[in-house]
């Protein structure tokens, strides 16, 4: 049977194994009997007949001949010598007809420079090339698909638009880059798709798009074509201000939120709030409560609700549970317009084993390590990224850039940093592989963090990179040029563990554990710390914050108020998980809404009012936050009164007039004639008291002005006498004469 194409290539097409189908399919200049002509070839198994239509002169048509019954067609156009733009009119065996431009008539779109930067690991906007992008090429609308799968025998795009048939749209592999690309005319936004990958062992895999911008609602797992560049942002003022602001010397009071369980809609089947609904309800609440930022547990796409988002299958896609990518942009935009920052929980430490995800993506361990001793978390049942592979490192660094660039995010809280830094994390002896020097440090992950942080801080001044790091690894929040990992901030897990251990004890025993209360100041300025009482502390049998507190009903609330008060006075930025602000009794569950009905009760309303007033005081008084990371902003007055379980200390701002004095009493015994040393003579006034009756306290307050006596106390020349409430905190400030 005569055919102008190479017969070996034809059989590669028929077997769906051709790595460059454009070389044979589409329109090509050929020679027939020594004369120039044009040949058009198509492989469409469902087609009964195909016609070639000249796009400029639709009356010029050419009938294609079926060369192989599998669906391989060719037309040799003896009257044409040059390639031209054309369409294919197709009819299948059921009489269905359609017209399309030929995907195999378009030149490569991804440039040599793109491939070079990708191979170097410096194409920080590679997400604009890989993935699915609605574009127009030579006046033809369609979608450009591109995916990295270097070890695949063949990669195809499959979807509703081709009956999920991997033979229909095989992609071309671009040289040695491992990138496969195909422009498919006529595919539109909201079309669903996956990549069908034929491995070297001839297994067929169906994978969602690692760079896809939108995904189906679980349990479905296909990617969805979506144009994320259409949204009109209205947060210019916020973004300009952010560029000129150093968050380290600003107030930072973070409300940590799981979007699926903050509030539900019970009258509509207990459904989730959408991104747009949450924008209005959550922002109004956060503004009233005085928080500066919302930190969202992961909203990247994930299959299992019970993972809280920490097992990610769509790193470039906000979860479709709550709406579209544009809806999430609206959420961030609305926060910014209301002067609220947005921090995302980000999970570069591991990924799940769902078959449609990154696991053995092209039939080989591509994103993960091949050896389970390196590539698997035994405790979590997840896979560890291979931070030594350039393209994998770029996938993650570009992902961070993506959220800052495309979604205007203000910070990333990087989850499980310790699990990345230590090769033996969660592993028993003999089940991990040491580094080249025989140590347990993951040198490739260290280099990844330095690279990541240097790039995002360079590109986005004013953002925050926050490490959830639970060990004593040095210089986590120090610049890379002095040997640090380059993060801006670090969660203070040591303080959290010590403080919760202390506050859970019966007050009668606290004097024996006073060091748990004060030890944090030994290392408070070694990192840029955020003090956290996060979601991790109110799950898995640990009890809610209010239920950690000892004592009777009144004492539980008083204990919690003084706990929060001490936390706000202590150096470091602040984070509190949702529900803790109104003393929810039940543990947090992702499966239901917070217990908002508790606000019908006075004690819970009082706690909510307390956090609201504490936040607003925090915002107003710069001594709370101007010198969070420097010893010049803190001074003990008395740290050693273990018998009374009391501490007193000073917080200082840039202006000496802003100095605040904190006194905290961790027993239910009130003190009506307590004396403390003060930094200077003059008059002092109580500006905040956790024991106020409006918060549910007993009203042991300091009313009026307190004059300092020239009487040495606590090693200071001047001192004052004051009332200290039971299980309470008082804050004093010097007032003008």
From TrEMBL:
Which Pfam family is one of those matched by this entry? GlgB_N
Q: Which SMART domains match?
A: Aamy
Enzyme Commission number, as recorded: 2.4.1.18
Domain Glycosyl hydrolase family 13 catalytic: start-end pairs: 256-618
Q: Which SUPFAM superfamilies match?
A: (Trans)glycosidases (SSF51445), E set domains (SSF81296), Glycosyl hydrolase domain (SSF51011)
Sorted UniProt keywords? Carbohydrate metabolism, Glycogen biosynthesis, Glycogen metabolism, Glycosyltransferase, Transferase
Is Transferase among this UniProt entry's keywords? yes
The active-site annotation reads 415, 468
Stored InterPro entries: A-amylase/branching_C, Branching_enzy, GH, GH13_cat_dom, GlgB, GlgB_N, GlgB_N_E_set_prok, Glyco_hydro_13_N
Pathway(s) the chain acts in:
Glycan biosynthesis; glycogen biosynthesis
Catalysis: reaction(s): Transfers a segment of a (1->4)-alpha-D-glucan chain to a primary hydroxy group in a similar glucan chain
List the molecular function annotations (GO) for this entry.
Answer: 1,4-alpha-glucan branching enzyme activity
Describe its function: Catalyzes the formation of the alpha-1,6-glucosidic linkages in glycogen by scission of a 1,4-alpha-linked oligosaccharide from growing alpha-1,4-glucan chains and the subsequent attachment of the oligosaccharide to the alpha-1,6 position.
Which NCBIfam families is this protein grouped with?
branching_enzym (TIGR01515), PRK05402.1 (NF003811), PRK12313.1 (NF008967)
**Record note on quaternary structure:** Monomer.
Q: Which family does it belong to?
A: Belongs to the glycosyl hydrolase 13 family. GlgB subfamily.
| Protein's UniProt name | 1,4-alpha-glucan branching enzyme GlgB
Species of provenance: Defluviitalea saccharophila
What is the name of the gene encoding this protein?
A: glgB
């Amino acid at each position: 049977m005569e055919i102008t194409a190479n017969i070996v290539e034809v059989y590669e097409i028929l077997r769906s194994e051709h790595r460059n189908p454009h070389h044979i399919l589409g329109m090509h200049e050929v020679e027939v009997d020594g004369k120039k002509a044009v040949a058009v070839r198509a492989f469409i198994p469902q087609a009964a007949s195909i016609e070639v239509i000249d796009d400029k002169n639709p009356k010029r048509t050419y009938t294609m001949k079926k060369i192989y019954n599998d669906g391989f067609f060719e037309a040799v156009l003896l009257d044409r010598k040059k390639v031209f733009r054309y369409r294919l009119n197709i009819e299948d065996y059921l009489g269905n007809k359609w017209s399309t431009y030929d995907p195999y008539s378009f030149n490569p779109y991804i440039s040599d420079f793109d491939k070079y930067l990708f191979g170097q690991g410096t194409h920080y906007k590679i997400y604009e090339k890989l993935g699915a992008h609605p574009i127009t090429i030579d006046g033809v609308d369609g979608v450009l698909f591109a995916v990295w799968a270097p070890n695949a025998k063949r990669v195809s795009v499959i979807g509703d638009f081709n009956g999920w048939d991997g033979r229909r749209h095989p992609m071309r592999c671009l040289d040695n880059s491992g990138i496969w690309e195909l422009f498919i005319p006529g595919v539109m936004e909201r079309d669903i798709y996956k990549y069908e990958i034929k491995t070297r062992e001839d297994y067929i895999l169906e994978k969602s798009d690692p760079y896809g911008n939108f995904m189906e609602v679980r349990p479905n797992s296909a990617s969805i074509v979506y144009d994320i560049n259409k949204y009109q942002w209205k947060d210019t003022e916020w973004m300009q201000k952010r560029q000129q602001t150093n968050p380290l010397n600003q107030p930072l009071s973070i409300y940590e939120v799981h979007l699926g369980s903050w509030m539900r809609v019970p009258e509509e089947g207990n459904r989730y709030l959408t991104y747009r609904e949450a924008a209005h309800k959550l922002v109004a609440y956060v503004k009233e409560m005085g928080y500066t930022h919302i930190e969202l547990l992961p909203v990247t796409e994930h299959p299992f609700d019970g993972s809280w988002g920490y097992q990610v299958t769509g790193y470039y896609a906000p979860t479709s549970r709550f709406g579209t990518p544009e809806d999430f942009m609206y959420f961030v935009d609305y926060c910014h317009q209301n002067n609220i920052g947005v921090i995302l929980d980000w999970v570069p430490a591991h990924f799940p084993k769902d078959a449609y995800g990154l696991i053995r993506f092209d039939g080989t361990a591509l994103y993960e390590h091949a050896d389970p001793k390196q590539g698997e978390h035994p405790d979590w049942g997840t896979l560890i990224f291979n931070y030594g592979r350039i393209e994998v490192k770029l996938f993650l660094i570009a992902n961070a850039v993506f959220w800052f660039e495309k979604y205007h995010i203000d910070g990333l809280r990087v989850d499980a940093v310790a699990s990345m830094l230590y090769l033996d994390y969660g592993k028993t002896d003999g089940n991990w592989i040491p580094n080249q020097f025989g140590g347990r440090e993951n040198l490739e992950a260290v280099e990844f963090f330095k690279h990541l942080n240097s790039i995002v801080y360079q590109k986005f001044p004013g953002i925050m990179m926050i490490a959830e790091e639970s060990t004593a690894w040095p210089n986590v929040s120090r610049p890379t040029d002095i040997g640090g990992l380059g993060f801006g901030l670090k969660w203070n897990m040591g303080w959290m563990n010590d403080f919760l251990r202390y506050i859970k004890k019966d007050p009668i025993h606290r004097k024996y554990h006073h060091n748990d209360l004060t030890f944090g100041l030994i290392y408070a300025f070694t990192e840029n710390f955020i003090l956290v009482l996060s979601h991790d502390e109110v799950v898995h049998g640990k009890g809610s914050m209010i239920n950690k507190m000892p004592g009777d009903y009144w004492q539980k609330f008083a204990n919690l108020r003084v706990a929060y008060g001490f936390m706000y006075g202590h150096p470091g930025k602040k984070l509190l998980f949702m529900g803790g602000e109104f003393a929810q009794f039940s543990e947090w569950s992702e499966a239901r809404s917070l217990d908002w009905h508790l606000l019908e009760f006075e004690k819970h309303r009082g706690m909510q009012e307390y956090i609201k007033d504490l936040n607003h005081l925090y915002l107003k008084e710069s001594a709370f936050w101007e010198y969070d990371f420097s010893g010049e902003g803190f001074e003990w007055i008395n740290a050693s009164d273990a018998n009374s379980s009391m501490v007193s200390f000073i917080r200082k701002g840039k202006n000496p007039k802003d100095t605040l004095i904190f006194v905290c009493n961790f027993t239910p015994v009130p003190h009506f004639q307590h004396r403390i040393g003060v930094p200077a003579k003059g008059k002092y006034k109580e500006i905040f008291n956790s024991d106020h009756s409006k918060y549910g306290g007993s009203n042991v307050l300091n009313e009026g002005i307190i004059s300092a006596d020239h009487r040495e106390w606590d090693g200071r020349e001047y001192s004052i006498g004051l009332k200290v409430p039971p299980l309470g905190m008082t804050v004093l400030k010097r007032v003008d004469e």
